[in-house]
Structures are given as C-alpha cells and as structure tokens.
Amino acid sequence: MLLLAAPAFAGTCSKTVRWELQPPYGVVRPDGERAGYYTDVAQEALARMGCTSTLVARPWARGLKELEDGQLDLMPGMLFNRERSRYALFSRGINLSPNLLFLTAAAARRATLLRLADLRDTDLKIAIETGAYYSAEYAALLVDPRFAARLHPVPDRARAWLMLESGRVDGVISDQASALVAGMPLRPVGDQPRAVLMLSSVPARIAFSRRHHDEAFVARFDAAIESMIADGSLLRMRERYVPCPTDPLTLGCQADAVETSPSPP
C-alpha cells in the first residue's frame, strides 16, 4: 500500500482523461454525467493516488495525436505497440476483449477467411474505426492497397454497426465487449452476423503521455489498479457496463459465458 500513499500529489495532481461515447467504455448516464468502464476505472485509480481528473471528449485519432503532443494525459483502452511506446507509457492490462471480425451470414457463406490477409481476394466491405490498431497483422496489411480497398473507415463503432445493419458493409471489426453491448450475438443463430476471425487477444491498457509521466507514476497507478482488483471494485465496474460475468484473472468475459471465438491460424 506504500505505493498508493502519495501526499505530494495532494492538490497538485490533476489529469485529463480521454472520453468518447463508445459503450461500454464511454457512456452517458441518465443524469447526463459521462461514465463508462474505462472512464470509471481511470478516475477511481487516479483518485486513489490523490489525483483529480477531467474528462475531455475526443475522437480516437485526435486523442492519439494529443497524447503524443502532451495535450492529453491519459487515454484508456489502448493496445500496446512499438510505435505508440515512443510517446506513451502503458499501465497493466485492465480489460481482455478480443478484437474480432464480424461478417453477415451471407458474407460468411461466400468468403472463407482463414486469416485477415484473405480479405484481399474478396469483394467484402469492412467497417473499421479510424486510427484503430486491431493487431500486428492488421497494421502490417494497411500498406497493401488490395487490403486497404476492403476497409471503410468510420468515426466510431456505433456507426459501423448501423452500416452493417443497413447492408452498407459486409462486416465490422470490433472488440468482443463492444459487440455484446451492440447486441451482436457471439452464438449466432440462422442469418445473424457472426465472428469469423480473432485478430488479437491481448489486454487493453491505459496509456500515459510520456511528456508528463514517468515509470514511477505508472507503477503507482498500477498499484491502485491492483487494489481495485483486490477489493472487487474493478470487477464490479466492468460488470456494470459489460453484459458478461468477468474472469478475475483475465479481466475478460468468463470462458463459459460466450462461445469460444475462432483463433487465428
């Protein structure tokens, strides 16, 4: 608990935290207050460190740029990669929610995909969130014009699901928890959309701008997260927003709560 005792921060530690309307991670409560799983976790951990926090509404791509420039302190829900580590430090994992490729039943019947690269040889149109990093394979494929031609960037996942529902795209790349909240069945029946590929299954973290943070600060933040896991508050926060029982070890949906997603080759 010594790591959590940070009296030097009292009255001086104030952080900006990215927020976006992206259920279950960013929501608006009936009273108009901004909340969500990532929002609640970040604010509670900071409070346990003696820090105050201010939520700032930013789309994903702009948030990344402001984090790099030091105009934003914390960006929850980020996957680690080498490029981002140039300008960001990362917390321990706070959420395991695999990135999946969902297709309509008709699209799944006409295109057999064994890996993400197989999209290049199809006519499928896939909605993706602008600036998102879904996996190392996904990032590497972005430079391939044939793969990029299959993608339809949108500002947020809500729009992607609407486009799938209206038939304007054949598929959506989304994480598991967001799909559950959007009503996508992970045990599809009949002609319902289904997950056909798992792109990545690594935990999402909270990123800190290197302009204003060091490893010691992140260590104190991680200690606050550990205390939230120990007292059960982090699991309660996740289950408040994500409609599945949470595994206390992985911080993801319990394995028997949803159908096992397809694994990458």
How is this structure best summarized?
This protein is α/β, with parallel strands linked by helices and about 260 residues long.
Q: Extract low-pLDDT stretches.
A: 1-10, 259-265
Helical content class: 25-40%
Q: Describe the biggest sheet?
A: 5 strands, mixed
Q: What percentage of the residues does DSSP assign to strands (E)?
A: 15-25%
Provide the gyration radius in Å: 19 Å
What is the overall pLDDT average?
91
> What overall geometry do the principal axes of the alpha carbons give?
globular
Question: Major sheet: order of its strands?
Answer: 9-8-10-7-11
Order of helices and strands: EEEHEHEEEHEHHEHEHEEHH
Number of strands: 12
What class do helices, strands and sheet pairing give?
Answer: alpha/beta
Helix run count? 9
Quote the distance from N terminus to C terminus.
Answer: 43 Å
